[in-house]
């Protein structure tokens, strides 16, 4: 397994066959990247349109745009939470125990506390016979002690009698009440826990950077900590921009589309570990738009905006520019090459703009936003794990652009993985995306992968 999203500049041109996606013919030594089409190249029933007459002023690689975002996003200061509220977050302090765990010598299982020398060499044919002088169970109890030839019946977690140095499991005995026959003698120290065996006073119980799950909550509770310092969930505001958008409860008219991005991206941000707030469709009036953006900058650690932004005269771009420096770029990726990033407002809050087309928006989230959220959470693993899989059918990709295709990856009966791209020209892209369990990643300098070839696959596991 490898990590995706690392690296630097565009890789050199490989010795591969380039496809002229405008004509469907083979070309050699193609001189420049072809702008990608807004449907995936695997839709062989559709032919992408010819490239625009003018290239954008700035063309950036995926790594360049990602590095700018990851360099700029801050890590929120640690906060103190109740241990149950800290579940899923990273510990931000070294928790030192002031208690010994266990706090007293105790039995590790149900059986009989005894002296090891009294049961040494016991067998089924020649058992050791001990007098049972009492019984202890887990809970408050007074100290007991034993001497030669004596035993105390104990339950798991019960205080060990003074003088006992072994617990004989009940299944190794005849379970006698007055006298017990021991059929096997364990070694000294077996099946018991000494004071401080688990955690000694003054030692670290939970380290900085440890993910807090059920086991860590158990340990924190045992050492007496009901609150703990953690890396908080970043607050992410999600907005959608576009005059064509209507809310989910409004039937769309001609030329209108439902705002699915604010819902999908808020869900994706929550899955990545953020505290996501769906602000919805941005206002169409300039002054009100400015107020909404400023209020989101005040309450958020990161602002995420999905929209189709015009190259000139776009009101959202102009209002964003009034709040700070915002860089809109053409990124060498498909789908959705138009991306933007800036730090705006009084507190220089990171703002990420992704394409308005829903499939491209979620792809951009996976590539740029999810790693930023995980960085803000303090995670060491920023990117999803990737695997190499066998392509079940030929794949096409525009030269010079990193292609992300939705697919289904599965285990191959002979080992490894096999991946199949989803959909054709007759299937809605949202339905295709909903069926996918992975993204197929094709590098910028690869235009064609034959059936049976190896390709990089990013499984899309919830919470992964």
UniProtKB/TrEMBL annotation:
GO terms for molecular function: metal ion binding; molybdopterin molybdotransferase activity. Keywords: Magnesium, Metal-binding, Molybdenum, Molybdenum cofactor biosynthesis, Transferase. It comes from the Bacteria. Pfam families: MoCF_biosynth, MoeA_C, MoeA_N. Residues 1-58 are annotated as: Disordered. Residues 237-375 form the MoaB/Mog domain. Belongs to the MoeA family. GO terms for biological process: Mo-molybdopterin cofactor biosynthetic process. This is Molybdopterin molybdenumtransferase. Its cofactor is Mg(2+). One of its GO terms (cellular component) is cytosol. It catalyses: adenylyl-molybdopterin + molybdate = Mo-molybdopterin + AMP + H(+). Its EC number is 2.10.1.1. Catalyzes the insertion of molybdate into adenylated molybdopterin with the concomitant release of AMP. Pathway: Cofactor biosynthesis; molybdopterin biosynthesis. The keyword GTP-binding does not apply. It comes from Geodermatophilus sabuli.
């Amino acid at each position: 397994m490898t990590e995706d999203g690392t690296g630097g500049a565009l890789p050199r041109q490989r010795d591969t066959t380039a496809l002229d996606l405008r004509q469907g013919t083979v070309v050699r030594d193609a001189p420049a990247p072809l702008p990608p089409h807004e449907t995936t190249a695997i839709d062989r029933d559709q032919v992408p349109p010819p490239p625009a007459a003018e290239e954008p002023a700035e063309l950036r690689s995926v790594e360049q745009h990602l590095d700018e975002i990851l360099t700029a996003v801050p890590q929120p200061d640690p906060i103190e939470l109740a241990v149950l509220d800290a579940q899923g977050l990273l510990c931000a302090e070294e928790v030192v125990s002031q208690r010994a765990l266990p706090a007293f010598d105790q039995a590790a299982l149900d059986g009989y506390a005894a002296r090891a020398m009294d049961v040494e060499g016991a067998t089924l044919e020649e058992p050791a016979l001990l007098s049972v002088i009492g019984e202890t169970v887990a809970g408050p109890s007074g100290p007991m002690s034993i001497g030669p030839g004596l035993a105390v019946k104990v339950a798991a977690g019960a205080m060990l009698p003074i003088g006992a140095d072994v617990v004989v499991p009940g299944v190794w005995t005849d379970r006698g009440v007055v006298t017990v026959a021991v059929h096997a003698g364990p070694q000294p120290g077996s099946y018991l826990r000494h004071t401080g065996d688990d955690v000694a006073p003054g030692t670290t119980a939970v380290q900085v950077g440890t993910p807090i799950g059920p086991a860590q909550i158990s340990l924190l509770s045992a050492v007496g900590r009901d609150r703990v310092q953690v890396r908080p969930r970043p607050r992410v505001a999600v907005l959608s921009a576009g005059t064509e958008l209507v809310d989910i409860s409004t039937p769309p008219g001609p030329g209108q589309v439902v705002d699915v991005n604010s819902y999908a991206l808020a869900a994706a941000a929550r899955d990545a570990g953020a505290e996501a707030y769906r602000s919805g469709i941005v206002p169409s009036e300039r002054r009100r738009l400015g107020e909404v953006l400023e209020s989101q900058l005040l309450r958020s650690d990161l602002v995420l905006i999905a929209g189709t932004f015009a190259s000139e005269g776009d009101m959202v771009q102009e209002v964003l520019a009034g709040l700070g420096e915002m860089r809109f770029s053409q990124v060498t990726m498909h789908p959705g090459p138009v991306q933007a990033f800036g730090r705006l407002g009084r507190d220089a809050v990171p703002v990420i703009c992704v394409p308005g087309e829903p499939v491209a928006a979620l792809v951009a989230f996976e590539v740029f936003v999810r790693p930023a959220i995980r960085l803000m959470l303090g995670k060491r693993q920023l990117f999803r794990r990737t695997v190499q899989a066998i392509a079940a059918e030929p794949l096409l990709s525009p030269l010079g652009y990193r292609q992300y295709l939705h697919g289904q990856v599965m285990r191959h009966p002979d080992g490894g993985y096999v991946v199949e791209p989803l959909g054709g020209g007759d299937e809605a892209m949202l339905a295709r995306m909903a069926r996918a369990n992975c993204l197929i990643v094709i590098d910028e300098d690869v235009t064609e992968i034959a059936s049976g070839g190896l390709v990089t696959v990013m499984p899309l596991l919830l919470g992964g």
